[in-house]
C-alpha cells in the first residue's frame, strides 16, 4: 500500500485497514495485522497506537490551518475518532472497536485527505526500499549485539539503531516527517559522540560500526530527499559527518 503524503490520507488508509479486520478476532490481533507486528508484542502495539493517536491530532491540526474550507464540516469525523481512541482494550473482541468506524467518519477523512494532498510537497518511499533499509538495520543490530564493543558504545549504537528502526516501522503512520525527525536526531547523536570515532584507516570493530551506521543514515537521508523533491536534506550536517568519518 502506498503511504500517502499527508496525515489525513495515512489516517484514512490505516483506519480503513482496521475496519476490514475480522470482527471476531481480539483487538490486539486486528491492530497487529494493521501495523504488521506480532500480536504478542504489546509494547510495540501500544507504541504504534500512541503514534496513531498522535496522527489523529496532527491531521486535525493540519485541517484547522486550512484557510479555504468549512472547518466544521472537515473536522466532523474527529469527534467520533477521539471517542474511538479514548479507551484502549487490546483483549476485547475487535467488533467492539469496529462498529465505531462507520462510513461517514471514513468518508470525511477521505475528503480531508484529498484536500491536504494538494498542499503536500512530498511523495512516498517504495516498499522495496523500506524493506531493504529494515533488513540492513536488523543486520547491523545483530552485529552490534554480538560484538565485543565496550558497553557504553554498544548502548549508544543500539539506542540510535532502535530509534531509526522504530521510525521505519511506523513510516505508514508518521510518513516522511517521522523519518526526517529521526534522521536529524541520529545525526545529532553521531556528532555529539564523534570523539569515539576511530580515524580513517583504522580496522577496529568500532570503526567498522561507525561506518556502517553512517551508511544507513546516508541512505535514509537520500530516501527522504527523494520524497521531498528538494536539495539534500541537512546537507552541511551530512557533509560534516562524512568529513569526520573520512579523517
Keywords:
Butyryl-CoA Dehydrogenase, subunit A, domain 3
Give a description of the structure.
The chain has 247 residues and is an all-alpha fold. The protein has two domains: 7-117, no CATH class; 127-246, Butyryl-CoA Dehydrogenase, subunit A, domain 3 (Up-down Bundle), CATH 1.20.140. The chain is built from twelve helices and no strands. It has helices at residues 7-19, 27-35, 42-64, 71-74, 77-84, 95-98, 103-117, 127-145, 151-169, 171-192, 205-228, 235-246. Helix 1 runs antiparallel to helix 7 (103-117) and helix 8 packs antiparallel against helix 11. It is globular. The N and C termini lie far apart (42 Å). The mean pLDDT is 83.
Strand-helix topology:
Layout: H1 7-19, H2 27-35, H3 42-64, H4 71-74, H5 77-84, H6 95-98, H7 103-117, H8 127-145, H9 151-169, H10 171-192, H11 205-228, H12 235-246
Helix pairs in contact: 1-3, 1-7, 1-10, 2-3, 5-7, 8-9, 8-11, 9-10, 10-11, 11-12
User: How many separate structural domains?
Assistant: 2
CA-atom Rg in angstroms: 20 Å
Low-confidence stretches: none
Number of strands: 0
What general form does the structure show? globular
Arithmetic mean of pLDDT: 83
Element-level helix/strand string: HHHHHHHHHHHH
Distance between the termini: 42 Å
Alpha-beta content class:
mainly alpha
CATH T-level fold name of the largest domain: Butyryl-CoA Dehydrogenase, subunit A, domain 3
CATH architecture of the largest domain: Up-down Bundle
Amino acid at each position: 500500500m502506498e503511504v500517502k503524503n499527508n496525515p489525513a490520507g495515512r489516517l484514512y488508509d490505516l483506519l480503513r485497514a482496521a475496519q476490514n479486520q475480522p470482527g471476531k478476532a481480539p483487538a490486539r490481533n486486528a491492530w497487529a495485522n494493521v501495523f504488521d507486528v506480532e500480536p504478542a508484542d504489546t509494547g510495540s502495539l501500544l507504541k504504534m497506537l500512541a503514534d496513531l493517536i498522535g496522527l489523529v491530532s496532527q491531521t486535525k491540526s493540519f485541517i484547522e490551518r486550512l484557510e479555504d474550507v468549512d472547518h466544521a464540516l472537515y473536522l466532523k469525523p474527529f469527534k467520533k475518532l477521539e471517542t474511538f481512541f479514548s479507551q484502549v482494550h487490546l483483549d476485547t473482541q475487535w467488533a467492539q472497536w469496529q462498529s465505531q468506524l462507520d462510513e461517514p467518519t471514513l468518508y470525511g477523512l477521505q475528503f480531508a485527505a484529498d484536500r491536504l494532498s494538494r498542499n503536500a510537497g512530498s511523495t512516498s518511499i517504495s516498499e522495496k526500499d523500506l524493506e531493504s533499509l529494515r533488513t540492513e538495520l536488523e543486520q547491523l543490530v545483530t552485529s552490534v549485539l554480538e560484538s565485543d564493543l565496550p558497553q557504553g558504545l554498544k548502548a549508544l549504537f543500539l539506542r540510535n539503531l532502535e530509534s531509526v528502526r522504530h521510525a521505519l516501522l511506523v513510516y505508514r503512520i508518521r510518513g516522511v516527517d517521522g523519518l526526517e525527525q529521526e534522521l536529524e536526531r541520529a545525526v545529532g547523536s553521531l556528532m555529539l559522540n564523534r570523539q569515539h570515532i576511530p580515524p580513517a584507516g583504522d580496522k577496529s570493530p568500532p570503526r567498522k560500526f561507525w561506518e556502517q551506521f553512517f551508511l544507513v543514515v546516508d541512505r535514509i537521508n537520500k530516501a527522504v530527499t527523494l520524497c521531498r523533491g528538494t536539495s539534500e536534506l541537512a546537507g552541511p550536517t551530512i557533509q560534516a559527518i562524512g568529513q569526520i568519518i573520512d579523517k
